[in-house]
Design goal:
CATH topology of the largest domain: Aspartate Aminotransferase, domain 2
Structural class: alpha/beta
CATH class of the largest domain: Alpha Beta
Low-confidence stretches: none
Distance between the termini: 29 Å
CATH superfamily of the largest domain: Type I PLP-dependent aspartate aminotransferase-like (Major domain)
Largest sheet: 7 strands, mixed
Bound molecules: pyridoxal-5'-phosphate
Length: about 450
């Protein structure tokens, strides 16, 4: 097949070494189910659900049809003092699967927007509640909360912070929960709940009454899947309550069946005050994110304003975009009709068995996993991230797309993956990670 030449001069790719990419482009031209095809027609299995987006697999006609119909009916409506019925329908549908009590939903277009919106909502709540001094935030080292300025401040991944000194949000970091003793733990580590006490230490050091919220990913995803120790999230909840600190779960990766339940909050039995979500909300087809808050948080903010002005001076041109709402409603319909959260839960033991079959391979130094989400830590390479980048390219050449982050791979196939495809993915991982000298 002869390909038309592609001019790569103009598109600056995000989170990419563009120089390397220009030399060795890795492109997809088509996708269906759990497969991508490159422009020259080579099949590549999707081991990361796109970017943890396509939980229901690629090319879902129900979503395409809903989007097309919506574009023909109402392509756009502003949401500043205007609305369309479809966003209320979506918010109600979401409220039906959200953790108990979180039934008020604010929409954005990306996970990063959801995180920054959540930061502002927390501040607005405390102000409305007569505690405007609560402006400090707590998050964790190794955290990823998107790339807008609020999320970048919260982030604990050094590489994502160091170029952006002076960003605005006042953040103190707790420790992450990974330790040497946890190597090769499948599921929740037994030890480590005490690490939640970092929040208490921070509250004592800075004054609990100055802290607005603590942000955590229930399972830290982007660093390479760090599963919370047993009792850790519950302990965080208790300490947050003790000091009047809002607990925010960033469920941008863990939402929509990835852990076994609709959300990790339900899976781990801990209800946050605020929750962010994106990615699989629309199966990745149309950008959309959401922040869910407890009823009393929204009520407090709304009731604090008596004048005719918005209670939350915040919003986006594409908040609750009707086409995104249509994509989300179709996606939630698929999850419900096909029982995909339950399917993911049922597939998880086979998936994790496959992941842990990689244990003694020469390129593997740790394995972690929960539900349909796993982290494969590679042995270190020449420089931090070099091995991850190399392995990611080798896997692509061998027919598997997996997201690499530093020297970890995040293996998280779609909830619709058939066992035969799962086995094929694991075989490719075994083949590539089993090579003693990868560079050769
Ligand atoms: N929060 C978490 C936990 C994420 O994993 C991500 C993206 O991976 C984000 C926020 C940012 O989402 P987006 O890339 O859609 O802005």
């Amino acid at each position: 097949m002869t390909l038309a030449p592609i001019n790569m001069d103009h598109h600056w790719l995000p989170f990419t070494n563009n120089k390397l990419f220009h030399k060795e482009p890795q492109m997809f031209a088509r996708a269906s189910g759990v497969r991508y095809w490159t422009p020259d027609g080579r099949e590549v299995l999707d081991g990361s659900s796109g970017l943890f987006t396509c939980a229901a697999g690629h090319g879902r006609s129900e979503i395409a049809e809903a989007v097309y119909a919506q574009l023909q009916t109402l392509d756009y409506t502003p949401h500043f003092q205007r609305a369309a019925p479809i966003s209320f329908e979506l918010a109600e549908k979401l409220a039906g699967i959200l953790p108990e009590g979180l039934d008020r939903v604010f929409f954005g277009s990306s996970g990063s927007e959801a995180v920054d919106s959540a930061i502002k909502i927390c501040m607005a709540y405390h102000k409305a509640n007569g505690e405007p001094q609560r402006t400090k935030f707590v998050s964790r080292s190794w955290a990823y909360h998107g790339v807008n300025l609020g999320g970048t401040s919260l982030a604990g991944m050094v590489g994502n912070r160091r170029d952006f000194g002076g960003v605005t949000v006042d953040v103190v970091h707790m420790r992450h929960t990974w330790s040497e003793e946890q190597r090769y733990t499948c599921g929740m580590p037994d030890d480590g709940a005490h690490l939640a006490d970092d929040l208490e230490e921070i509250a004592k050091t800075y004054g609990g009454e100055t802290i607005a919220a603590v942000f955590v990913e229930p399972i830290a995803g982007s660093i390479g899947t760090i599963v919370p120790p047993k009792g850790y999230l519950k302990r965080l909840r208790e300490i947050a309550d003790k000091y009047g600190i809002l607990l925010v779960f960033d469920e941008v990766i863990t939402g929509f069946g990835r852990t076994g339940a609709a959300f990790a909050a339900q899976e781990f039995g801990v209800t946050p005050d605020v929750m962010t979500m994106a990615k699989a909300l629309t199966n990745g087809a149309i950008p959309m994110s959401a922040v869910a808050v407890k009823t009393e948080i929204q009520k407090k903010v709304i009731e604090s304003i008596t004048a005719d002005r918005p209670e939350l001076m915040h919003g986006y041109t594409y908040s609750a975009h009707p086409v995104a709402c249509a994509a989300a409603l179709a996606t939630l319909g698929i999850y419900e009709r096909d029982g995909l959260f339950e399917r993911g839960k049922a597939l998880s033991p086979t998936f994790l068995e496959g992941v842990f079959s990689l244990r003694n391979l020469p390129q593997v130094s740790d394995l972690r996993g929960y539900g349909m989400l796993s982290g494969i830590q590679l042995t270190p390479g020449a420089a931090p991230g070099a091995k991850g980048s190399l392995v990611q390219r080798k896997l692509f050449d061998a027919g598997l797309h997996v997201k690499a982050t530093g020297d970890a791979l995040i293996f998280a196939p779609a909830l619709v993956t058939e066992e035969v495809d799962l086995s094929a993915m694991v075989e490719i991982l075994q083949k590539v990670l089993g090579q003693a000298d990868l560079a050769a």
